[in-house]
Amino acid sequence: MNHPRAYQNQQIVILGLARSGVAVAKLFHELGAVVTVNDKKEREQCPEADELAALGISVICGSHPPTLIHGGVKLVVKNPGIPYTIAPLVKAEELGIEIVSEVEVAYHVCRAPMVCITGSNGKTTTTTWIGLMLDKAGLKPIVAGNIGRALTEAALEATEANQMVVELSSFQLKGTRDFHPQIACLLNLYETHLDYHGSMEDYIESKAKLFANQTPDDTAVLNWDDPVCRLLANEIKASVLPFSIKEELDYGVYVQNEDKHIVYRDQAGSIHPIIAVHEIGIPGSFNVENALAASCAALTLGVSTAIIAGELREFRGVEHRLELVGTKNGVQFYNNSKATNATATIRTIESFEPGLILIAGGLDRGSDYLELLPVFKERVKGLVAIGETKHKIMQVAELAGMNAVKAVDTAKDPQAAIAEAVSHAVAMAAPGDVVLLSPACASWDMFTSYEERGRMFKESVHNL
User: Fold this and answer.
1) 119 assigned to a ligand binding site
2) Are residues 209 and 93 located together in one domain of the fold?
3) Helix/strand number for the chain, H first, E second
4) What is the mean pLDDT of residues 83-87?
5) Do β-strands 434-437 and 356-360 pair in parallel, antiparallel, or remain unpaired?
6) What predicted TM-score, i.e. pTM, was given to this entire model?
7) What was the pLDDT predicted at 421?
8) How far, in Å, CA of 399 to CA of 163, rounded?
9) What phi, psi does 143 have (nearest 5°)?
10) Is 310 one of the annotated binding-site residues?
11) What is the count of structural domains for the chain?
């Protein structure tokens, strides 16, 4: 796309309100474009609509009118979660109108260099860690993107003195064209979001757009233990900085086999110790990987190993990511509502000793969840199943020979359902056990977001 200034007096359609839609609508309006914002939700469900309308922006709610997209529209900016199969986007493609995500718009107005993080799992933790490391080093990071703050809004306040630290989803990256981060981190790639992408190939291609415009002067941080990441390394023009939890690398950040220390081996072959794995402030092998990736990004920007080690040691995690809610009658309760795919749940279960009680289930995207079978057999002693997928996950528990299995009535309102799930879990648990909410599914069958699901779980635990 062109710079947003080039669309003065031209018609722009923004599909979807929410944070990113509001931010990008305001930007184009301020630059003199003729902006129409459209959301299929009813007006009363769009609290942002009145604010935009007061600025003189046309807001259409409740449907996608057939006349919304026409030959006079010069650009469509879509909310990342909106599928490309809806009628307005199909029509835009037929008319040759460019369709981008808010991330592409933000890139064109951002003056700060960008450190961008994507992957199937671990994005938020890694992004947060990098932000903390850069802040401690005085590099003035601004953290935004999929982590909570609209990238366009953050980009407009950034200067050359800042570092923009950006969490990105495959949905956001799919709608980019010129987007060019100076440091790009790909944490891992697992089968997920296929209901949106249609195929694993499209999912991988969308993630790989993170590197599409990088040059040899840029850095690509890649998980050397992930086979897809290794394959992508052959196509990337940037300088590749790998990390590994399994392999001692000739160059990169890795865990030493013998003493389990994270170290950085530079291009000259010198080894720089960072921290012992057991000192990292949050548990789980997946968080060791996140620590390695964050270290790579920080080292690239000249952050000292002492600062990196300090932040790895002090950080206690992000809400809804393996978050210790509390202990009741000797039972620990963990909120891992952000685990929206089976791989994330498996890796979380593996962080604990065998014998935990799991609360799982949610939106049905067509998976059979059989990949959960080994950890169910070896590590889970009780299951409480919720949501659309409850029968599928209970079937896996049955195959695993699990005796303690309960289902929650999905007709209940969300708060009552999650309270019932906690109650069932408590009945299964003994002092010393762990009750873990790690759904392996998206939340949208019962909840507005994984955050709402996690908050309701925490409230139910606190009310015990």
Assistant:
1) yes
2) no
3) 17, 20
4) 94
5) parallel
6) 0.81
7) 96
8) 50
9) -100, 130
10) no
11) 3
